[in-house]
Design goal:
The chain is an alpha/beta fold and about 290 residues long. The chain is built from ten helices and eight strands. An eight-stranded parallel β-barrel has the order 1-2-3-4-5-6-7-8, surrounded by five helices. It binds manganese (II) ion. The site of manganese (II) ion has 4 residues, from loops.
């Protein structure tokens, strides 16, 4: 099991210097840094080489996360959008492969944050399955797995539970398309978080962690012990990436809807200390071998 953190914990805007966070994640005791996929297709060869060597030098593995824009909606009803999105993802996968990134997770089957005007779950589901059937073989050529992140009802309507994640991934039927769960979303939608993890079972390809209000693991009331037991039961040995969001402000604050200061005015060094404590806590609670 490898432990990571999403860079945006420290950021108010999505654009960021990933090398700065590679070094920080290594210093704080993480194995993985999860980066946002959005800027990667536009990276120059020099930027790719620089980030790749920075990660290697610091012993950090990279994973990618993406909340697709509506232009990158692989489940869109307009075939031109899907075609354009497919081309964009191809460029992304090419850069990801060069950066040795083999997993991308998020609402890749849709877009984020979704507008619920006129949604038709059954039709959207069908098109999203087709979109993933188009994307998966391309990702596979680059050795990339696609994590279908199950989100809470306020952020998407297609996959809200682990059970739906399993049905969706089974319907897509491609071995590099996996279920991705997040304790923050599960806290809202699942009757039992541990049973949700067991439901995902061997299809679980990526896991995000965070407290029910998105503080770092250990500061809230999420049942980490039973989550650890469920991960042991399914013998999960993949990545566990914490995705805390605690500071107000900027586009990150708006998109995540942070309307009160969960950080209690923390400085960057206090945020660092919290992350360091959280990864120690997470290793203790979730590692089963
Ligand atoms: Mn997440």
């Amino acid at each position: 099991m490898k432990h990571g953190i999403y860079y945006a914990y420290w950021e108010k805007e999505w654009a960021a210097d990933y090398e700065y966070y590679v070094e920080k994640a290594a210093r704080l005791g993480f194995d993985i840094l999860e980066v946002g996929a959005a800027p990667l297709p536009d990276y120059t060869p020099a930027q790719i080489q620089s980030l790749k060597s920075c990660a290697a030098k610091n012993g950090i593995q990279l994973t990618a996360g993406y909340g697709p824009t509506s232009e990158h909606n692989m489940g869109a009803s307009d075939p031109a959008v899907v075609k354009n999105a497919t081309e964009w993802y191809k460029q992304l996968f090419d850069v990801m492969a060069q950066l040795d990134i083999h997993l991308i997770g998020g609402a890749l089957y849709s877009y984020w944050p979704v507008s619920f005007d006129g949604v038709d779950k059954a039709e959207d589901w069908k098109r999203s399955v087709e979109g993933m059937q188009t994307l998966a073989p391309i990702a596979k050529q680059y050795g990339i797995d696609l994590g279908m992140e199950v989100l809470n009802r306020f952020e998407n309507h297609i996959l809200n539970t682990a059970e739906e994640g399993v049905s969706f991934v089974t319907e897509v039927g491609q071995d590099n398309v996996k279920v991705m769960l997040d304790t923050f979303h599960m806290n809202i939608e699942e009757t039992s978080i541990a049973d949700a993890i067991r439901t995902a079972g061997s299809l679980l390809g990526h896991l995000h962690t965070g407290e029910c209000n998105r503080m770092v693991p250990g500061k809230g009331r999420t049942p980490w012990r039973e989550i650890g037991e469920a991960l042991r039961d399914i013998q999960y040995d993949g990545a566990v990436v914490m995705e805390p969001f605690v500071a107000m402000g900027g586009q990150v604050g708006r998109d995540i809807h942070i309307w009160h200061d969960l950080s209690r005015g923390a400085t960057e060094s206090q945020l660092d200390k919290d992350a360091q404590d959280a990864v120690t806590f997470q290793r203790y609670m979730l590692e089963w071998k």
